[in-house]
From TrEMBL:
Transmembrane segments: none
The keyword DNA repair is annotated on this UniProt entry: no
Organism: Pseudoduganella plicata
Name this protein carries in UniProt: Carboxylic ester hydrolase
Position of the signal peptide: 1-20
Domain spans labelled Carboxylesterase type B: 27-492
Family: Belongs to the type-B carboxylesterase/lipase family.
UniProt key word rRNA processing: no
Length: 512
């Protein structure tokens, strides 16, 4: 039993499995051979574990292939390479050695003590717009979850043009005549690896939760409709994002046209020439003005049809879902530009954005103009799609919605705290990793919020229900209001009264 106590806070009691007195060795046996990790502070860690063959040479833009066996005991004490990517996001901190196409590695953290029963499993997909990121980032570190009696994994997957390029020649190669979505195939391959190997780390393959933030959350919503991932997980967590946003996914034909244009920009006249190009050269082409942002494709295979149709028909994985977003996913300037935050300027922006529907928009966002502009910017970018995912999934399975509103504190360099909880600002709180981020002056209130959010997440990973002893009751979203858990210094369910906003976006989406 682990208890967190902070001034003026109820004790949060997190039930963890019983452990035997004996410790487990730092060696585990997985597909490919034996691996040796490390043991520290009650946690065994295995880093840089291959779950598929390196997707290099002729395997570039191929579905992930089986792991290549090795002789002896393979060291698993350091992170593997991160996927090929450009330096896109300043807040990313990597512990991996560098970028490389040879990037299909995962990391496992598990209790060092021998558990008396199989442990629940968390598989976390990193964010980064499907173009950047890495499982080595300290904010995703799995040690804190392992101390809660959970086997935690982070997974690397191919990104950008390496992970999501579609091309007619690529489509012609495969038996299903589709291409793109190799990054999603990598994630599904990692989940299959978990099913076959997680028992070696004390994990229960029947109790796997997939989770992720931003692009990782998009990935979770995609794996819930990916036939390759069917039956490979029992629960899902999404933080800020889904494939059900305002813009539909590109069709295979559209994505193939993008691929042909990219090949032309790279100076390749065939797929063979494109495969033969150095990886760095492909990144240089991606960097050129006018190049597309490669992402998830409605390819007819991994994503069989429009995700909105699949979710409306209730054809997604019928597993419990915990999902939500932050109070300041986007700033008001995304709507108002450099104009002052006034009702007149907001009305002018609505007129420009929505024309004949501007009055409808004004009714939906008829409250404090600074909050309304911030909310509209957030909704247009990532919040509406997250809400739609929650709303549709709640019709077929237990679904829990959160609203994270704790701003990160002042930085150690003296930068003031943000006005709200910015995009990705909840990750360290949810995974118990505040101490891994040295940028901020974390307070006891921050640790209190982290204990609460990690407690809810850990309970959900164990049981499919976030509730536990000593914690405010969190109802499912179709329970009579209040039914959304606002996570902050004083966490409690509340009634957000925001459906009118999202129904406005529904109407916009349905316009021809």
């Amino acid at each position: 039993m682990i208890r967190f106590a902070y001034p003026g806070v109820l004790l949060l009691s997190l039930a963890t499995p019983a452990f035997a007195a004996s410790a487990l060795p730092a060696v585990a046996h997985v597909e490919g051979g034996a691996i040796e990790g490390t043991i520290s502070d009650g946690v065994r860690a295995f880093k840089g574990v291959p779950f598929a063959a390196p997707p290099v040479g002729t395997l570039r833009w191929k579905p992930p292939q089986p792991v290549q066996p090795w002789n002896g005991v393979r060291p698993a004490k350091d992170f593997g390479n991160r996927a090929m990517q450009l330096p896109l996001f300043a807040d990313m901190v990597f512990r991996s050695p560098g970028t490389d196409e040879d990037c299909l590695y995962l990391n496992v953290w598990t209790p060092a003590a021998r558990a008396k029963k199989k442990l629940p499993v968390l598989v976390y997909f990193h964010g980064g717009g499907l173009a950047a990121g890495d499982g080595s980032e300290p904010r995703y570190d799995g040690a804190a979850m392992a101390r809660q009696g959970i086997v935690a994994l982070t997974v690397n997957y191919r990104l950008g043009v390496f992970g999501f390029l579609a091309h007619p020649e690529l489509s012609a190669e495969g038996p299903v005549r589709a291409s793109g979505n190799y990054g999603l195939m990598d994630q599904a391959a990692a989940l299959r690896w978990v099913q076959r190997n997680i028992a070696s780390f004390g994990g229960d393959p029947a109790q796997v939760t997939i989770a992720g933030e931003s692009a990782g959350s998009y990935s979770v919503s995609a794996q819930m409709i990916n036939p390759q991932a069917r039956g490979l997980f029992a629960r899902a967590i999404g933080e800020s994002g889904s494939v059900l946003g305002r813009e539909p996914l590109p069709t295979l034909t559209q994505a193939e046209q993008q691929g042909v244009a990219f090949a032309g920009a790279a100076g390749a006249t065939s797929l063979a020439e494109l495969r033969a190009m150095p990886a760095q050269r492909l990144l240089e082409v991606v960097r050129q003005p006018g190049m597309p942002w490669f992402g998830i494709v409605q390819d007819g295979a991994v994503i069989e049809r429009a995700p909105l149709e699949t979710y409306r028909r209730g054809m997604q994985a019928k597993v419990p879902l915990l999902a939500g977003w932050n109070s300041q996913e986007m700033h008001a300037g995304a709507i108002l530009g450099k104009e002052a935050v006034t009702k007149e300027n907001f009305a002018a922006a609505l007129e420009k954005l929505y024309g004949d529907s501007a009055r409808d928009a004004a009714r939906a966002y008829d409250y404090d103009v600074a909050e309304a502009a911030r909310d509209l910017a957030s909704d247009r970018w990532i919040v509406y799609g997250t809400w739609k995912w929650i709303d549709l999934h709640s019709r077929i399975a237990p679904t829990y919605r959160y609203y994270f509103s704790r701003p990160r504190p002042e930085t150690t360099a003296g930068k003031p705290a943000d006005a709200g909880a910015v995009h990705s600002g909840e990750i360290e709180y949810a995974l118990g990793n505040l101490d891994g981020n040295k940028v901020y002056r974390w307070s006891e209130d921050d640790r209190r919020v982290s204990a609460t959010m990690q407690g809810y997440f850990a309970n959900f990973i164990r049981t499919g229900n976030p509730n536990g002893a000593g914690m405010a009751n969190w109802p499912v979203v179709n329970h009579p209001a209040p039914n959304v858990m606002r996570i902050d210094v004083r966490s409690a369910p509340y009634n957000p009264r925001d459906r009118e906003r999202f129904e406005f976006h529904d109407r916009q989406q349905e316009k021809p």
